[in-house]
Design brief:
- This protein is α+β, with helices and mostly antiparallel strands.
- Helices cover 16% and strands 30% of the residues.
- The chain is built from four helices and 32 strands.
- It has helices at residues 2-10, 16-93, 103-106, 207-212, and strands at 252-254, 261-263, 280-282, 287-290, 298-307, 314-317, 323-327, 332-336, 342-346, 359-364, 370-375, 380-384, 389-394, 401-406, 412-417, 421-426, 432-437, 448-453, 459-464, 468-473, 479-484, 490-495, 501-506, 511-515, 530-536, 542-547, 553-558, 562-567, 572-578, 584-589, 595-600, 604-612.
Length: 617
């Protein structure tokens, strides 16, 4: 025990304070090292942030420069087009030979302002597409429809164009998008897309359907200006039509078919500067040319121009003629016809918030209490006009709603959709009363583009993409006849006020008048509907047709940007109106007044008056 004790006493031990000092020195040295390393990293971070900020500023400056260059390019290009057109017309006016159009005149278009530059340096520059627009040549989005749409063609109802009915559809076709808000579908192509456009059934679209701006992934019709592929009669960038032939005003009636084909005066080809004053009427941004081969019976004036923020897909008067409803992206607007003032805006707060939602069809009830609207979300909304509230939302269609009509007694609603069905609904309950299905064409696309009740409410007519018009009996729901005659999709159908005739408009650029035979109110010895006359005169797709209340006049709107008045008694063109800068997607005549309305891919609706002149002796 003594030895152990002595051994421990012999082992020296370091003072405690010395060991603590050593540990503290080691910790201090490590702290200093970490502090120096942190300072170095902070300096590196500051330098990196400065470099990134500098690079972002440079990117923003480059974006701004590109934007300014693009604006200058658009301006120079537009000036070049206008100057070339002016020189061409001047040369032809002096008797020179027609000058072949240059590359710009082959694709006339209303140049759109380039998209605004990004608002902050963090936003990347969008990929550029043809014509300096975003990917795919359009701002992200309808069309028109083109609007087109339509809508260039801002799709049928252009075009438009922008635009998804099963297999393709109508309005708008050919519409020029409003700056900053793509009006509808970019035709058959998805935004920024490419590849082969397909129908809703997975089939490639025909060239005619592609031109109309039809597709499954967007609504029909609306194309951007750079996508427009004008037909042979499309208008150049200014409001006057291209002069093709100053002598193209002949009228010829050719035999063939049933009772003949009427070739009207090619008013769309005439130069307004060379037309005598008594055969034209001009406003600040519109003009009318009257047919020199027929007596002038009308005078036309522009009453109101109604600006919208997107393509106007549809127009419809109330039955008392006091109000006009217009359908565009997400909203339906009601206007006072007398003053041109906007009375109200109807928008469903419960509708999907993402993407476009074009109102393709509107229709007032006969008593004016309700307004029914059809949209791209496949729903039909019944609005209480006075309360501005939704009374019913009708669901059942599988594709976009393209056309609506009320029965004459106001108890039923008729709807047509890209899902190949026509449906009849009860206004009071919102219940579906009948489902009329197109099943006679197999897998061929037969989306319904336009529907109408006959004046006596006993018949339903429906136009479709398969070139056909079909009749059904309302009471039984049985199909009565399939009317075949047009060479391309039929986009519009309307009964004459007396129910004796049926009017149709087609992508084959013609209108047709059909005798109703035994289906007319007075009956006939003919068992089937037959074509009485084919009306030629438009230079591009006929997108909308309407009868005047007295049945004497026919109105048609076209992708050629023109509106034509036809004399239903002689089947000749009375006049051609140019007042829109894009496809005329929808036309309507007031039931009570001598006025009519037009809706276009140029984001405008217009109200016009037509005054009857004394008949020449």
């Amino acid at each position: 025990m003594s030895n152990v004790y002595n051994h421990r006493q012999m082992v020296p031990s370091a003072p405690l304070s010395s060991r603590v000092t050593e540990l503290l020195d080691a910790l201090r040295a490590e702290y200093d090292s970490l502090n120096q390393e942190t300072s170095s990293m902070r300096m590196f971070k500051d330098e990196y942030d400065q470099r990134v900020s500098s690079q972002l500023n440079e990117i923003q400056a480059v974006q701004q420069s590109l934007y300014e260059l693009e604006r200058a390019h658009h301006k120079i290009k537009q000036q070049y087009e206008e100057e070339i057109l002016r020189l061409r017309r001047e040369l032809e006016a002096r008797g020179g030979p027609p000058v072949p159009p240059g590359p710009f005149l082959q694709q006339p278009q209303q140049l759109q302002q380039p998209p605004m530059p990004p608002q902050g340096p963090q936003q990347p520059m969008p990929p550029m597409g043809p014509g300096g627009h975003g990917a795919g040549g359009m701002p992200p989005g309808p069309g028109a429809m083109y609007a087109g749409m339509p809508p260039g063609s801002a799709g049928p109802h252009g075009g438009h164009n922008g635009s998804g009915m099963a297999g393709g559809p109508p309005p708008p076709m050919g519409g020029e998008p409003h700056p900053g808000a793509y009006m509808g579908p970019p035709g058959p192509y998805p935004p920024g897309g490419g590849g082969v456009p397909m129908s809703a059934h997975g089939q490639p679209l025909t060239p005619q359907q592609q031109a109309a701006g039809l597709g499954k992934d967007r609504k029909p019709n609306v194309m951007t200006p750079t996508q427009q592929q004008p037909g042979p009669g499309s208008m150049p960038s200014r409001h006057t039509p291209t002069q093709i032939s100053r002598n193209a005003s002949s009228v010829a009636v050719a035999g063939g078919g049933n009772k003949g084909v009427v070739t009207s005066s090619q008013l769309a080809d005439m130069d307004p500067d060379s037309v005598p004053p008594n055969l034209k009427r001009e406003g600040a941004d519109w003009f009318v040319i009257f047919n020199p081969k027929t007596p002038r019976l009308l005078n036309i004036e522009n009453l109101h121009t109604l600006d919208h923020t997107s393509v106007v897909c549809c127009v419809k008067f109330s039955h008392d003629g006091k109000y006009l409803a217009t359908g565009c992206n997400r909203t339906t607007q009601i206007w006072n016809v007398a003053t041109g003032n906007k009375e109200c805006v109807l928008a469903d707060d419960n509708a999907p918030k993402n993407g476009d939602l074009y109102i393709r069809a509107v229709c007032f009830s006969p008593d004016g209490k309700y307004l029914v609207t059809g949209a791209e979300d496949k729903a039909i909304r019944i609005w209480d006009v006075q309360r501005r509230t939704i009374r019913h939302v009708l669901s059942g269609h599988d594709q976009d709603i393209y056309s609506l009509d009320f029965s004459p007694d106001g108890s039923m609603i008729l709807s047509g959709s890209g899902d190949r069905t026509v449906r009849i609904w009860n206004l009071e309950t919102g219940a579906e009363m009948a489902k009329l299905v197109i099943e006679d064409m197999g897998h061929k696309d037969a989306g319904v583009t336009s529907v109408a009740f006959s004046p006596n409410g006993k018949l339903v007519a429906a136009a479709s993409l398969d070139k056909m018009i079909r009749l059904w009996d309302v009471a039984s729901g049985q199909p009565l006849q399939r009317i075949d005659g047009h060479k391309d999709s039929v986009y519009a159908v309307a009964f004459s006020p007396d129910g004796q005739s049926l009017l149709s408009g087609s992508l084959d650029k013609t209108l047709r008048l059909w005798d109703m035979g035994r289906y007319g109110p007075s009956g006939s010895s003919r068992d089937i509907v037959q074509c009485r006359t084919t009306l030629h005169g438009h230079k591009d797709f006929v997108l909308s047709v309407a009868y005047s209340p007295d049945g004497n006049w026919i109105l048609s709107g076209s992708k050629d940007r023109g509106v034509q008045f036809w004399d239903a008694r002689t089947q000749q063109t009375q006049c051609m109106l140019q007042g829109h800068k894009n496809s005329v997607i929808s036309v309507a005549l007031s039931p009570t007044q001598a006025c009519f309305a037009t809706g276009s891919g140029d984001c405008r609706a217009r109200i016009w008056s037509y005054e009857s002149l004394p008949s020449p002796v």
